[in-house]
Target: Nucleoside diphosphate kinase
Amino acid sequence: MTTNRTFTMIKPDAVANGHIGNILAMITNAGFRIVSLKLTQLTVADAQAFYAVHAQRPFYGELVDFMSSGPIVAAILEKENAVADFRTLIGATNPAEAAEGTIRKLYATSMGENAVHGSDSDENAAIEGNFHFSGREQF
Ligand code: GDP
Model:
């Protein structure tokens, strides 16, 4: 089932570097509707759970430390073909490989500190969105 929704986080690097406004403008200018939005911070346990799929990877500890290191912006976004179109808008995981004009090309600093998260499937988008937002926070 396709929900036409995805989940994103503006990561601690981009929040600290003052890019919240520019990134939200890119997202809405690309046609995404904001369903849910908040400034929040992941605990270490939240970050471990969120990235559990990467638990065996060598960068897991670094990723968990980074993602819990400061405030993030969490959002649920809606648009036709949201998951795939948002992955296109953010660009490759490694900003050095990200296409011109993508969020990561413009605002990411490294493979780890890469400015934004975007869900990789409709199923994960729903899980991740529901992790951060109750039903009455989804508009
Ligand atoms: P994404 O779907 O493009 O975010 O990429 P992945 O699901 O493969 O990885 C999740 C996140 O882990 C990435 O967005 C990065 O923040 C981080 N990550 C991936 N590879 C590396 C790496 O080699 N080093 C570090 N430090 N972080 C990484």
User: Anything to note?
Assistant: Residues 52 and 120 are 14 Å apart (CA to CA). The first helix runs from residue 12 to 16.
